[in-house]
Amino acid sequence: MNGLAVDVSGLVKTFQVKQKAPGLRGSWRAVWQPAVKEVTAVADISFTLEEGEILAFIGPNGAGKSTTIKMLTGILYPSGGQASVLGYTPWQDRRTLGFHIGSVFGQKPQLWYHLPAEDTFRLFARIYELDMAAFRQRRDFLVEAFDIGHLLQIPVRKLSLGQRMKCEITASLLHRPRIIFLDEPTIGLDVVAKQQIRDAITYLNEEENTTIFLTSHDAGDIEKLSRRVIIINHGRLIYDGRTSALKRQYLTRKRIDVRFAERLNGDELILPGVTILKRGTYGLKLEFDSRAVPVEQVVQQIMAVKPTQDINIADPPLEEIIRDIYQA
Amino acid sequence: MNELKFLRTLAGINLASAMEYRASFISQIVGMFINNGIYFVFWLIFFDRFGTVRGYNIGEIYLLFAIVTLGYGLAYMFAGNTGGSLAYLIAQGRLDYYLVFPRNVLLHVVFSRMVVSTIGDVTFGLIAYLFTGRFHPLEIGLFLLSAVFVALILVAFGVMAGSLAFFLGNTQYASQQLNMTMLTFALYPNSLFTGAARFMLYTIVPAAFVGAVPVRIVQERNGLLLLGLAGVAALMWGLATAVFYTGLRRYESGSAINVNV
After folding, report:
1. Which residues of B touch A (CB under 8 A)?
2. What order do you get walking across the sheet with A101-105 strand by strand?
3. CA gap B182, B201 in Å, rounded
């Protein structure tokens, strides 16, 4: 049985943010009468995460995702509440915890920019006090797994974003962390590179039982990697459940793509609650709320119009569901 | 021990990174050597004309320059992230990188940057010492040890100057200015200052411990004063550590995209 990797209770973080009216006059006034406003980035969130779980921790920009990760990795002190990561209080036991966690911040590279990745790997071996023989074995394994052997001697500045990200993740795994925090690991990557990163994350989780704490704006990352999602907005937790349940709970809209064997005349399908998104010479794209109109009823109506060649019923992309939740 | 091994590796990687650009690497070192030389020549001309200034003659100036430039060079060759650089990292929220590692965050930050041009300072300091004519082994030993303590004092002062950013926001230029003030006052003959100014040089901006006191240690072959200087260095490191970690509790991170060079 797995223990708890993360246990968060009533975590709060507030910041003092300087306020200033626009323009030079505002700046001048702020010099003499500085105004400060307290902004709550994380407001009383609680959740737990078991060892070996993959969690997608998502929310719109400014929701408090990164602030939460920063408190869980010991970067920031909280303003209130408790958190335990692998049994340690991150901001008190930062150094001890550091040996057991890894982190990849998509927009904050850890590799030394002007040097080949191999040099950073060696530095990390010192940072994590790794036995050199064990380090070489682990490095060789990861280098093969990520297929980056040909990149090790090239200065990082010369690598593509995808190549660099694979090296970043390799660096963060050298010390076999029990939990890894991935903040936007696929940001800016092409589809091939994204898939390689996702495969690596899946491998780590399945083969090494590494707990994955993932934030991403990419619905593909969430859908393909995590069975559990936490959504936060304005610093508050608004959803904590299975990814599939998220789709079921919020996914009452359905889309149907249909291709008819005969040419359409224009007014064959008029159904209350069904919206025609796109009309072609032989095809229609429809959307409807399955709570208002049962799927069977819509399909029967379609079949009654003309003979069909193909029919496809699909959920809207997860991205749209998440967007709807954020906007609500 | 692990910390020392780590710092040694860090120094190596810093040097390797600096040497990636050969022309820049060499020109910075040579440039700083020339820069120090010009400043030094100014004092040579000055003392050639006026002989002595309040007890300081050209011999003391050679020694003063040798100690301060060697100490400064040693400090910034290994520990370049102090003063303005440290304040910049704090204000931009760039300490995140260091905080996720299981290392002493202060040492990791401070030793993560090498100021290449300071190799020129170290070379200059050693050559300037040759002009003092003090080749007694005891004097050479006291000179080198004093330079190490001067380096420690300069780094500790730079940490405190840079840590102001935790409390006051972006103090990059103010912190840089404080470091420059320390260095400038250290390079003047201490006997020029009296009263409140002199008091300041032993307290708020302790430049006397970087210039005048080490000169006396070598001149007088004063081991006791060297111990005193070591005590000041230890005290300043204690203060710098306290100020930095108190400030770190107020650290607010940031969303800037950062790169390690």
Report:
1. 2, 5-6, 9-10, 13, 16-17, 20-21, 95-97, 99-105, 169, 249, 251-253, 255, 257-261
2. A101-105, A179-183, A211-215, A54-58, A228-233, A236-242
3. 9
Buried (b) or exposed (e) across A153-187, using 16+ Cβ within 10 A? ebbbeebeebbbbbbbbbbbbbbebbbbbbbbbbb
Nearest to A75 among B100, B104, B255 (CB): B100
Is residue A316 helix, strand or coil?
coil
Among residues A248, A276, A301, which one ends one of the domains? A248
A176: left (phi over 0), alpha (psi -120 to 50) or beta: left
Give the domain CATH number at A287. Answer: 3.30.70
Average pLDDT over chain A, rounded to whole?
88
User: What does the pLDDT look like over B11-69, one tens digit per residue?
Assistant: 999 888 888 888 888 888 888 888 888 877 887 888 778 777 777 788 888 899 999 99
Q: Give chain B's domain count.
A: 1
Cβ–Cβ below 8 Å for B102 and A112: no
Reported ipTM: the value is 0.82
Q: Sort out which chain B residues have CB atoms less than 8 A from A115's CB and list them.
A: 13, 16-17, 20
